[in-house]
Amino acid sequence: MVVEKIKKLENNQLETFNKEYVNEERWPIVKKMIDQSFPEGNFSFLDIGGGNGIFTDKILAHYPEAVGTLLDNAEVLLEMNKSHPRKKLILSSAENLNDIFNNQNFDVIFFNWVLHHFVAETYWQTRKTQNEILMQAQSILSAKGYISIFENMYVGALFKNLPSHLIFNLTSNKKLAPVTKIFGANTAGCGVCFLSDSTWKQEISKTNLHIVNYEEFPKWKINILRQILLHIGSVRVGHFWLKRG
Hints:
By secondary structure, this protein is of the alpha/beta class. The chain has a domain of 169 residues: 3-Layer(aba) Sandwich (Rossmann fold), CATH 3.40.50. Helices cover 33% and strands 24% of the residues. Strands 3-2-1-4-5-7-6 form a seven-stranded mixed beta sheet. The longest helix has 17 residues. It is globular, with a radius of gyration of 17 Å. The two termini are 27 Å apart.
């Protein structure tokens, strides 16, 4: 078994993530890509970091022939799941994908706002961990498989990925946690690692995955002080639909 490097959020921090982010604005792109890729609606999927299971249940409701597996390292979130005959729950870390699914493949693997939570002790260890998990995910894809990624794209005003470094160092610093909490950091003391869209594309290019579709959503309104302090040019949600090979 892999020695787990990913930091875990406290239960009170996890409670802030007891919601569904694939809302009515974002769901259509997921449905569009699934319908194009699996017109018969028959596919298996893995929801990594799926937490309370709302997204998994939505997929199962829209696609009666689909079979889903939800993996999360937070027992408190897994306990919030409703039982479903086509849903399997696994309590483990995404670092262990190859060990858990060594004889199993999936047609779709979802990373919904979770890659930025795969935080290790340092920034570059974190980046390495994110890449390793993507590599493991591609290895358990079926021959016709796809990976779906939702992430918040933080683009620097001048230096594209500088906000990534600044936010990581601020949120991962335990001594600064009381301060970063005041500014709304729900991962204060643990850390978070957002990347720019161009940096994510570089990370994807290091794998055996290629981008079938990339879609951006409207820019967020960011407080001017936060923009200046974190060197933020823009923040928006981006969605990648990737295919192996």
